[in-house]
Specification:
This protein has one domain: Alpha-Beta Barrel (TIM Barrel). 36% of the residues lie in helices and 14% in strands. The chain is built from 13 helices and 12 strands. Strands 3-4-5-8-9-10-11-12 form an 8-stranded parallel sheet, covered by helices on one side. A two-stranded antiparallel ribbon has the order 1-2. Strands 6-7 form a two-stranded antiparallel ribbon. Strand 3, helix 2 and strand 4 (59-61) form a beta-alpha-beta unit. The chain is globular. The N and C termini lie far apart (42 Å). Residues 24-315 form the NADP-dependent oxidoreductase domain.
Length: 391
């Protein structure tokens, strides 16, 4: 088995047109610090990252908002065991904290500068390969944010620039300031809204697409269907995993399970293989806390699908039959359809001392789809009384 794993090579693909080359399958590190399950011990997290690298995964994704901040520290420690020049490291900035109205986003030049310095220190590296704006700041013209990011590239602190959950207009305006290498979006069998506008635009501009939650936040791996949801998981807060919606969605899972048998793989592997087959410019970044699931995800690269297969799989999960919204109402404005910014030259007074927050903030609560370690606070927002957590 080990010998067979060694023989299998994960292909390399190019993201964007500026020269970034990554493994066709990346690894999303968020879950190592919580979210779907409890955070893993540091030694376990490091061993998972090392195993991923040994199997050929070289593209690792984190954020200053995961943990908060502790995920970057963990990744930094894991990198000490790996050849830095062979790893493509991605992290993100922009989410300051959560309040009762949703995520507080900052894309001002001062905040960008403070965040990169703090991330470089936590990761203990000299540069970031791919630096994303995690969510779009609707108060700051994207040109202002991009101008500062462009300076970071010129200074060698960042090699490539990315955006996450940005609207088509924001992507175009950002790309005009400095080439965008990748756009990170949610894309899976039951979340396909980027296919009409975002994907064609990225291909027109030569921008890669990095897909998070490619297994439907674990749904096509059986979360909530054949496997009970952990008490500490944020999944029950997502509409699609709630009561009546989940019962309806189980029908879709059973369809994929049946197709997976036909292709000699698991439902999770088929769902991931479907994303992998969307193009050479598409790189999914599933995460896991278990070595066996990591190996299973990597083996999804061995699943070969024809155009006819892809259509059959897509048809098995009609979007109009998916029950429940993607996000709770509180977080809906963070979706790419709302990822717009003021016109260039607009002067908007930012109300929060965010530069201080970038390095010394107390993040009170986290969006259930972004920050894994603040579940207690999230439950408090939804009416469950639990102790307040702080950094």
């Amino acid at each position: 088995m080990a010998e067979e794993q060694q023989k299998f090579q994960i292909p390399k693909v190019k993201l964007g047109t500026q020269g970034l080359e990554v493994s066709k399958l990346g690894f999303g590190c968020m879950g190592l610090s919580g979210a779907y399950n409890d955070p893993v011990p540091e030694d376990v997290g490091i061993s998972i990252i090392k195993h991923a690298f040994d199997r050929g995964v070289t593209f690792f994704d984190t954020s200053d908002f995961y943990g908060p901040k502790t995920n970057e520290i963990l990744i930094g420690k894991a990198l000490k065991h790996l050849p830095r020049e062979k790893v493509q490291l991605a992290t993100k900035f922009g989410i300051v904290k959560m309040d009762g109205a949703g995520p507080v986003i900052n894309g001002t030049p001062e905040y960008v500068r403070a965040c990169i310095e703090a991330s470089l220190e936590r990761l203990d590296v000299d540069y970031i390969d791919l630096y994303y704006q995690h969510r779009v700041d609707s108060n700051t013209p994207i040109e202002d944010t991009m101008s500062e990011l462009k300076k970071l590239v010129e200074e060698g602190k960042v090699k490539y620039i990315g955006l996450s959950e940005a609207s088509p207009e924001t992507i175009k305006r950002a790309h005009a300031v400095h080439p965008i290498t990748a756009v990170q979006m949610e894309w899976s069998l039951w979340t396909r809204d980027i296919e009409e506008e975002i994907v064609p635009l990225c291909r027109e501009l030569g921008i890669g697409v990095v897909t998070y939650s490619p297994i439907g936040r674990g749904f096509f791996g059986g979360k909530g269907v054949v496997e009970a949801l952990p008490a500490t998981s944020f999944l029950p807060f997502l509409p699609r995993f709630q009561a009546e919606n989940l019962e309806k969605n189980k029908i879709l899972y059973l369809k994929i399970e049946k197709l997976a048998e036909k292709h000699g793989c698991t439902p999770a592997q088929l769902a991931l293989a479907w994303v992998l087959h969307q193009g050479d410019d598409v790189v999914p970044i599933p995460g896991t806390t278990k070595i066996k699931n990591l190996d299973s995800n990597i083996d999804s690269l061995k699943v070969k699908l024809t155009e006819e297969d892809l259509r059959e799989i897509s048809d098995a999960v009609p979007i109009n039959e998916v029950a429940g919204d993607l996000l709770p109402q509180l977080f809906s404005k963070s979706h790419w359809k709302f990822g717009n910014t003021p016109p260039k030259g607009s002067k908007v007074v930012y109300q929060l001392n965010s530069v201080v927050s970038a390095t010394n903030s107390s993040i009170s609560v986290a969006a259930c789809y972004l920050l894994p370690a603040a579940l207690d606070n999230l439950k408090m927002l939804f009416g469950s009384v639990r102790s307040r957590c702080s950094e």
